[in-house]
Amino acid sequence: MDTAEKIILFCFLLQGVCCRDFNITLPQKIEALNGSCVIIKCRFEIREIFDKDLTERATGLWLKDGINVNNNLVFNSSTSSQKSFMKGNITGKLKDKDCTTVFHDFRSDHSGQYYFRIEGEGELKWTYTETSASIHVVDSPPRPTVQLYVEQKEVQDQEEVLEGRSVSLRCSAETLCSSPPPTLTWSSTPRIPLSESSRLEELISDLNFTATHRQHRVTFTCTITYQLQDETKTAQDNITLHVQYAPKISPSSSCTRTDVTVCFCEADGNPSPELEWHLSGRPVTNSSNTFISEERLSSTGLRSSITLHQSLTHTSTLQCVSNNTHGNASQLFQLPSSVARLNLFSVMTGVVVGLVVVLLCAITCICVRKEDGKLSQTKQEGAKRSDQTKVVPQKNKDDSVYVM
Fold it and tell me: What are the Ig-like domain coordinates in residue numbering (predicted)?
């Protein structure tokens, strides 16, 4: 390519850049929440010869479902919003070719195709018929989206999370126009304390925590809330967390002893753990002296019981051992021997006999005191009768001698 051809090509490209034409940029589809507002982001271009006509006094018009100004006009920025079919205002500066518009109290009958028209001073009057915005009214807001991140890496909601890992749940929402702006909130079932951080300008809310076994199968719900004039509208998305963890033995595990020793052990883990019994350090299996049974409590819980018919010594110990792919746990039961229990029975028997003896002695003392009281009272009554039966001396008429 010689120099002349390069100059011609440059002039052609320059002409293409300098020669502007009428065009507009609009979103093809917009969703509006019934009873709320809607924002139409809009920018337009005009031919250079009309630049002088695009002043501060320029007017923006919106036509619905057609391009006839007389029949399809629904909004005119130069007239009062109250007099227009649509209530709203152009928030952009038309002089800067920004036709962004907000319509308020958008209703179902407002759905349709919207065309923009610019009218300036002089001869600038143009309807952008080639491009329109399709606005659809919905009764319910779109659902937010919840994503799971483990150690800052996104994973699928059904993947298992290992206990102790850093977890982040991110809730994001494609927002619709509303005043006040919509809000995001977190909740969980069952209810646990939540600590979240939000970026309202992007409508993103992050829930950060360290995964524990208590959060296994916990459902976390993110709710977007729109406060409208006459009602509140919400939408939700949720995720159920699956946490893997090493076995944990319940503190309620214990033993009882009558004629035989019966112990039970409960363990919880994900994956579901296995349980073993060790007597004095050796594994125990079913035999004539021992009987072991298991019961599945849940997808992560297991209960095992053991019945010991054999005699135990003071050194006998019983251990419950649980394990899965993530670790193990154990609990030691100190078993009292049969001799010790016999001694304890003897001591208790002696105490009971002693109490009975003391009680009998007390009863005897009370009875003796009562008998002594009765004897003393009898003597007093006898003496009284004796005094009453004594002979009174009388004087003889003849010899004046007292005769007894």
Answer: 144-240, 247-336
Which two structure tokens, joined as six digits, stand for 381? 């009554």
* CATH architecture of structural domain 145-241: Sandwich (2.60)
- CA dist 26 and 100 (Å) reads 9
Cα separation, 237 vs 242, whole angstroms: 17
pLDDT in tens, 255-268: 887 788 889 999 99
d(CA 284, CA 306): 9
Classified by CATH at the fold level, domain 246-338 comes out as Immunoglobulin-like (2.60.40)
The domain made up of 18-138 has a fold known as Immunoglobulin-like (2.60.40)
Distance, CA of 167 to CA of 152 (rounded, Å): 8
Cα angle 223, 229, 233 (rounded to 5 degrees) comes to: 20
d(CA 93, CA 148): 42
What does the pLDDT read at residue 255? Answer: 87
Report how far residue 276's alpha carbon sits from residue 274's, in angstroms, rounded to the nearest whole number. Answer: 7
Residue 173 and residue 147 in contact, taking contact as beta carbons nearer than 8 Å: no
In sequence order, the 6+-apart residues with CB closer than 8 A to the CB of 72 are 63, 64, 65, 66, 115
Instruction: Count CB atoms within 10 A of the CB of residue 384.
Output: 9
Q: What is the pLDDT of residues 278-305, one digit of tens each?
A: 988 889 888 888 899 999 999 999 999 9
- Please tell me whether residue 384 adopts helix, strand or coil conformation: helix
Looking up tokens 């991110």 gives: 170
Cα distance between the two ends of the chain: 186
| DSSP-derived 3-state class of residue 64 | strand
Token pair, residue 168, equals 């982040």
In the predicted structure, residue 345 carries a pLDDT above the cut 60: no
In whole angstroms, give the CA distance from residue 62 to residue 102: 11
Domain ranges of the chain: 18-138, 145-241, 246-338
Mean pLDDT value across residues 318-336: 89
Question: What is the per-residue pLDDT for 303?
Answer: 94
